[in-house]
Structures are given as C-alpha cells and as structure tokens.
Amino acid sequence: LQESESETKLDGETASDSESKSDFGGSSPVPTSDDTPEVLNRALSNLSSRWKNWWVRGILTLAMITFFFIIIYLGPMVLMTIVMCVQIKCFHEIITIGYNVYHSYDLPWFRTLSWYFLLCVNYFFYGETVTDYFFTLVQREEPLRILSKYHRFISFALYLTGFCMFVLSLVKKHYRLQFYMFGWTHVTLLIVVTQSHLIIHNLFEGMIWFIVPISCVICNDIMAYMFGFFFGRTPLIKLSPKKTWEGFIGGFFSTVLFGLLLSYVMSGYRCFTCPVEFNNDTNSFTMDCEPSELFQLQEYNIPVVLQSVVGWKTVRMYPFQIHSIALSTFASLIGPFGGFFASGFKRAFKIKDFANTIPGHGGIMDRFDCQYLMATFVNVYIASFIRGPNPSKLIQQFLTLRPDQQLHIFNTLKAHLVDRGILGSLEDA
Amino acid sequence: MSARRRRRAAAEQEEEEEEEEAAEAGSDKEVDLDERLHELDLRSDSDIPDVPPPTDSTPEILKKALSGLSARWKNWWIRGILSLAMISGFFLIIYLGSFMLMLLVLSIQVKCYHEIITIGYRVYHSYDLPWFRSLSWYFLLCVNYFFYGETVADYFATFVQRREQLQFLIRYHRFISFALYLTGFCMFVLSLVKKHYRLQFYMFAWTHVTLLITVTQSHLVIQNLFEGMIWFLVPISSVICNDITAYIFGFFFGRTPLIKLSPKKTWEGFIGGFFSTVVFGFIFSYFLAQHQYFVCPVEYNSETNRFVTECEPSELFQMKKYSVPPLLQAVLGWETVNMYPFQMHSFALSTFASLIGPFGGFFASGFKRAFKIKDFADTIPGHGGIMDRFDCQYLMATFVHVYITSFIRGPNPSKLLKQLLILQPEQQLSVYKTLKSHLVEKGILQPSLRG
Fold first, then answer.
1. What is the number of structural domains in chain B?
2. What are the residues facing B336 on neighbouring strands?
3. Is the ipTM, as predicted for this complex, more than 0.90?
C-alpha cells in the first residue's frame, strides 16, 4: 500500500506536501498509519490537516531538541547509550526496507545473521576504541585483559563464524536474494556502525565536538526550511524539488552565525571543552582539565574589510570559534548532500519515509541522514588539524613491542625532544 | 514453486494497481517498463538472462598441440599447463623481489575489481548509466590512495622526510582522502537520473562491497609481505596446495559429497587436502626459514633506493629442540626434533587454509550460481577469471594479518614513531616520561645517575 501511494507523490520528503498535493488529485491516497499520540490529535482536531501537520512537526521538533538537552545534562554515559540505541534503530530501519524490497522475510537464518553481524562489528569497534579509554580498568580484570590482548583475533573469529553460517545457509532457489541481503547488510553496517563509533570518538574528545556539529546540522535543516518557506523561489536540485537556493544560502549564513554564537557560549564551560576521561576511583566519567589553548580567549585583528562594518579594531574570540566556522560551513554545504542521498534512496525504493517512528517526521534515519557525513568530517578534522592520535593508545601499543624496538623508539623520541629544545640536557638519562 | 508463482502473481497485481494509480492521479512519473522488469528480476532467479558461454581464449599453439585428444583430456591438459605456467610465473616474481610482488598484487586487485564490476554491469544492464564507470574507477583510486598512504608511507618514512610536498600530503593524509571520497560521493548524488535511481543505488552499493572485499584484502596481503616474504609465500602456497591436493584426492578417492553448493567437492578430497597441506606447510616453511631473503622484514633503503631484506633472524626462525609428544614418539622413533618455531605457526596457517579457506570458494560458487555465470571472466584459459583463482585467498590474507598482529608481534614500530612525533610537545613529554619509567622498571634502560 505504501508503494502504490508513493507513486502519486513527486518527492518522498514531507508529509505536509504530500497531503496538499493529494487534495488536487481525484483519488485520495491511503494515509500512513497515524502515530500521533491521542492528546495531540484532540488538541489539534479543529485545525485543517495542513496546519495540523505543521503543528505536529513543530511540537515533535521541540520535543526532540528538549530531549537532546536533557541527555546532554545527564552526561557522557547516557549519551553513549543513546548513540548506541539510535544506531541499532537505524540499522533496523534500513534492514527492514531491504526485507520489504526483496520480499525476503522468509529467508532462512537471515534475520538472525543480520543481527549477528551487527553484534560482531559493534564488538570489534567497541573493543578497538572504548578500551583505550578504560585502559586501567581493563588491565586490572583478568578476563578483560585477555579479551583485549587477542581482541582482533576474537572479532575476526566471530565474523568468520557468521560468514560460514551464511555460506551454509545458501538455499538453491534463493541464492541471488541471499547475496543481495548479504550485500545490503554489509553496506548498512558500513554506513551506520562506523559513523556511530566516530561520533563516540568525537564525544570523548570533548562534548563540544559532539554538540556543536550536531546542532549545526539541525540548525541548517530548520533555517534552510524557514528561508525556503519565506523567500524560496529557485529550485536547487531535481532530486528534492522543495529545496531552493534561497533556503540553501540563507541556511548557510544562519548556521555559521549560530555556530559562532554556540561555540562562544560553550567554550566557557569546562564540562564541554575537556576530554572525557574515565576515573577509576569513582568509576564514572569526569571532564576536568586545564582548558587547552583552543578554549582560551585571544585577541584577533579584524580584517580591514570588516572593520568599517563592525566598527571594532580587534575582537576577543576563542580559537575554537574559527574551527566552528569550518564545521558550520561543512554542515551547510556538504551536509545536505547526505539528505539528497537519502531522498534518492527513498525514491529509488519507492518509500515515503524510512519508518514511522517519529510522528510527522518519519523514521530515525530521516532525522539523521545529514548527520552521517558530519560525524566522519569532524573526526577527520580533529585528527588532521586539532590533535594527533591518542597518547594513551600509543603507550599501550608501545608496551606490546619487543624490548629492542622499545629502546629504539625511546631513543629516537629523546633525540627529537632534545632537538626541539623541549627536553633540556639536564634531564638526559 | 507455488510460493514463487504466488509471489509473481502478487507482483503482477501490484504492478497493475500501480499503473491504475499513476493513470488516475496523472502523475508525470512515467510508468517505467524497465523498472518493472527489474523488479520482477529481483524476486525470482529464473528471470536472470543466461550469460552466453565464455569465448575460448586458449592460445593457438596449445590448441594445435592438443588437437588430437578428446575434449575432456584436452581441457585437463590446458588446466594443467596453465597451472604450471602460473606457478612458474609466481616463482619468477618472487625472485625479482618485493617491489615486483607489490606491483603484481596491485594489478591483481585492479583486475579482480574490474571483473566483479563488469558482472554488476551485466546483471543490472547498467552499461549506459551516466558517469557510472568513471565513478567506480574513481572510488577505486580514492580507496587505494587512502590505504597506500596509511600503510606504505610508513615504510618509506626516510624517503618522505626529505621531500616537502610529500610531508604535507602525509600530514593531512586523512583529510585529503576524505575530501577526495566526498567529491566522488557528491558527484554520485548529482548524477542521479530520474528513471534510474534504483539501478544507480545498486551499482553504488555493488562498488562499495567490491572495494571492501578486494582493496582491503590486497592491502593486508602487502602488509603481510612487509612483515617478511615468508608470511606472504607460505599462506598463498598453502591455499594453492590445498586446492590442488583436494582436487587430486577427490579425483581418485572421492565418493561422499561435501556441500550442495559445489557438487564436485567431496569429503575425501577435503580431508586428504587438509593433511597434505599441513605436511606441505611444514616442509615448505622448513626450507624458507633458512634464508634471510624470506625471513626478514622488508625495508626500504633510502640510499640505494631499493628494498632490502637483511637482518638478524628473529627467534621464530632459529632452530630449537622440541620434545616429541609420547604419542608420536612411538610412530616416528625420535625423542626430540629440531624445528623452527615458525613451523608451529605454519601448522595454524595450513589448518586455516584447508578448513576455512574453502568457504571462500563456496561463497564464490554461490555467487556465480546466484548470478548465473560459469566463471568470473575469461582471463585465464581453462581456469576462468583471476577471481576464480583468488577466491580462497581473500579470507587467508585477513587471517594471516590478524594472526600476526595478535600472536607474533604488536603494531608496526615505525608507524608508532610517526604518531609519536606528531603529538603536541606537552603530550610528547608526558609520553616520554611514562616510557622512561617503564623501561627503567623493566631493566631495559639503566637509570641515570642524574635521574
């Protein structure tokens, strides 16, 4: 029913457009199941369906943003859990689409295998990244230490088991379907799981690296919609007819401004700017540190061009705000391509929304499609421009080397430090 | 069969409903005949067109020499001769050195990628999709650039340090690779054409899965190679040996079929192949472990601008006395035996090659049956495409890499050093202090009088 209904729609994006277009045609399409809670339904029962939908979307947007603030308040552990849940739900949504496309619900083993692969890949990633942060905890507990030492081997063995089960489950008439689902599962894992782990990496770098990018993408979504609503005239891309150049450019400038302001407010608080660390004694996460230079106010000279406009000669800013310009720019210019990709995907498979999880908005994937590219970009940005690899991980790797290799590295490092004048000759060992 | 008929009937009914809806609402989305046919394709195997039998690419000389024999023996001789040719080619390249081997691995990777992508084109009839061939090759280039930058650049550290532009590329390597990939991604999104969305997404996914399989594995093979050529030779030879001996054992003794996917494989072949591969692995490692050329990690000498393999052989490659377990003592008659510790590891490698390696082969067989092709391509006469020869190798390469990092040695020291050198100065200092206290504790470093 969903497939036949979407044939009449020109784009698979918002519920409000589809309903306004359906009034025009002779036949009324079958509405998607209405997930709106009863209380909202009653409150809005007297408005026309177009405004009702607008209100539902608005209320749910506010609800989601409030929820976001609450979990930020609750701390990194809750955030990690939420990221994990979002990841599982996204995986489930995309796999369900695959099942529907290929009518493969009855394939033997397949649902079990998909979830098994999700488990394996998550196990691998959590082992690689999270254990670095819990290093001391892991070293203390014997079983955890062994799991950590042979981590790659264990993960590989788990994956192989799944692979062999897949091969053994191949059934004569369904080879092609099974291979398609295998491919579908792997691509979904590649998209969903790697990105969610990059988000967690960014989170550990400092909550500001998690909050500012996500907020920029959300702001861009909302601002581009508003600008498009009020000023929109020139269509942007055939894939999404409702996007306009005015919305795109207006969204860009508002997001950059928003990013600057948000970073300014957040850089003042240690709980956002400090890397998240696991405190062994209290067994909880702490964010306590000396703020790095990124988060210390500095005087910048305003370029001559802007001086006349703004009227100041210098301005006090956090260096992080300069980085936020890069993040907001990416969120506004490239982030939408993630949205176009998802739109193309929905049109290709003739679905209106990924799922019906959020009333008025669709599935979780519908909200998170632009976030994925953002997470990878932030991670690559941090690794390239902000700081290098994690020192504790390096120490850990160092400890597994042979003694002669350790000595060689130590001496090279010492020579390098002496060279740079970081290590005085007094400290020479 | 009835399930399939029901599904097809349901599909046809759905198509009719869609047509009606489209006609009624006056949608400007055309009822796309092509798209509907493709939908039917997905639901039943029988709609896939049969690929015409591969053209005979056997060289003329072979054909003339074997013209007198019957077709069956002729095919056997061709396969045999080509096997010998490939093995000799392999030995020749080993002789020529690591650099040639790297080039060979790279060419094989590109050819495998090409074969699988071509199958995708045929399955989806998507040769005419705009941009798609360029995009597939572009993604291959990006991913290769990323991997080469991450791994191989470490080995060329001294070479790289001397040249400014290369230093810049190395420092921002991830960012540059990501930017290149993003360009490809955006080009893909911009190239989406109204009638072909689904096809384009399929080819996009097909490309990515192929990249995941071929490119990552070939880089793992190269990393194993740098660990020491023996880590490259023994696994590959074990897989080849298992292939050949399982075939021979199956030919002479085969009776019980092994798996429905490949009716020609038998349990006798499987078990016989297992034991022969283990013995072969033992003997082969024994011979290779004696030569520095195979045993030493490959290093790049910046003065001579060549790869050298010279070192003090690690303990893995020094003879040790092992006591033979009492069970085997009676059989063999010795109490102790002189072996290289590496031969114990070769036992693990051969076991994997014989027991799990074949699953890679079954996977490829299933794939060929699913897409109704007899061989991946016609590159090698009598054998099929390059992928046909390398299907079992892929799992092996990953296994060897994981094995090395888990059991043999830790991470690459030069990579570790590189990462240490790009830390912030305060971080470097604190790492230095931690390392120093650790080394002093272990007695590797003598504590100085000045502290």
1. 1
2. B323
3. no
